[in-house]
Amino acid sequence: MVVVLLASGVQAQVVSDNFNSGISSSWDVFAEGAPWTVDTLSGEGRLLVSKAQDNLTTNHMVAGLKSKYQLVGNFSACVDFELVNFPSGDFYDPTTPRGWNWAGLRISTTPSTYIWDTTNFVTLRGSPDVQGGLDGAEGWAYVLGEPTAYNIGNVRDTTMSGRFGVSREGDMISAWLDRGSGLELLGSFSSQALNVPVYIQLYVGQIPSGYGRPHTALDIRYDNFTVTADSVIGVPEPATLLLLGIGGLILRKR
Questions:
Q1: What is the pairing mode between strands 70-85 and 161-169?
Q2: Are 216 and 204 in contact (CB under 8 A)?
Q3: Which domains does the chain carry?
Q4: How many angstroms separate the CA atoms of 86 and 107, rounded?
Q5: Per-residue pLDDT of the chain (254 residues; tens, 9 = 90+)
Q6: Where is 232: in which H helix or E strand?
Q7: CB 222 within 8 A of CB 204
Q8: Residues 6 or more apart whose Cβ sits within 8 Å of residue 115
Q9: Which residues make beta-bridge pairs with 140?
């Protein structure tokens, strides 16, 4: 269920989705490059993004949900994640690693799902490099941004569950990761190009290195998505609209 909350007396709106009632009309499903499953789990109220191992030659494979609405002004977005099956990138030749598996929370100035789109920003958990090279055995949590900056920040990471966050205050975009002890800042950068209405995506991808992309099976779960923004435009019906007093609000999953 998606709930849109309007705070009276202040410029703030909250969109929250716990996926208890399936994928709502506020999202578009995207699944590019392979047979993906993007659906909610019966009895769990979580979003599932998964695929089987494949042998396709497609070079870029992504799937997840992208918002039909846009976020205007300052905002803060978070989503719970669990990496149920999130292996290293595989390879056909033992000397040739095949890219990375990625999962994250992404914003973009267009509805495009292409990870190297000209203007986007993403908080990512990346799989380890099978060769123990660039990513080593642990993998990374990344902050990627275009076009002003690329790898804005990173930390070696083994988190298999936690919470992704993305926020904007003025021109400053920030990425956050909760690894069990609260949200920690991964990196920030200033971008006038991203200080416009943006879409938000729950994102999973198999991203190529110079030798191709991974072909592994994946199983990623998302839950308890929440975004608070100065304004949210284009939320389709049906959505629950509530007027709030200044006293505030606590959302709990039921």
A1: antiparallel
A2: no
A3: 24-229 (2.60.120.560)
A4: 22
A5: 555 554 444 568 999 999 999 999 999 999 988 789 999 998 889 999 999 988 887 777 899 999 999 999 999 999 999 999 988 776 555 555 567 888 999 999 998 888 777 788 888 888 765 544 444 455 667 677 776 666 787 777 778 899 999 999 999 999 999 988 888 998 898 989 899 999 999 999 988 776 678 888 999 999 999 999 999 999 876 544 343 333 333 333 33
A6: strand 218-233
A7: no
A8: 60, 62, 102, 106, 122, 144, 203, 205, 207
A9: 126, 156
The SS3 of residue 154 is strand
Q: Which amino acid is at 77?
A: A
**CA atoms within 13 Å, Cβ hemisphere of 16:** 17
Q: Which two tokens stand for residue 24?
A: 């709502």
Cα angle 205, 206, 212; round to 5: 150
Structure tokens at 235: 């939320």
Torsion sign, CA atoms 175, 197, 28, 18 = positive
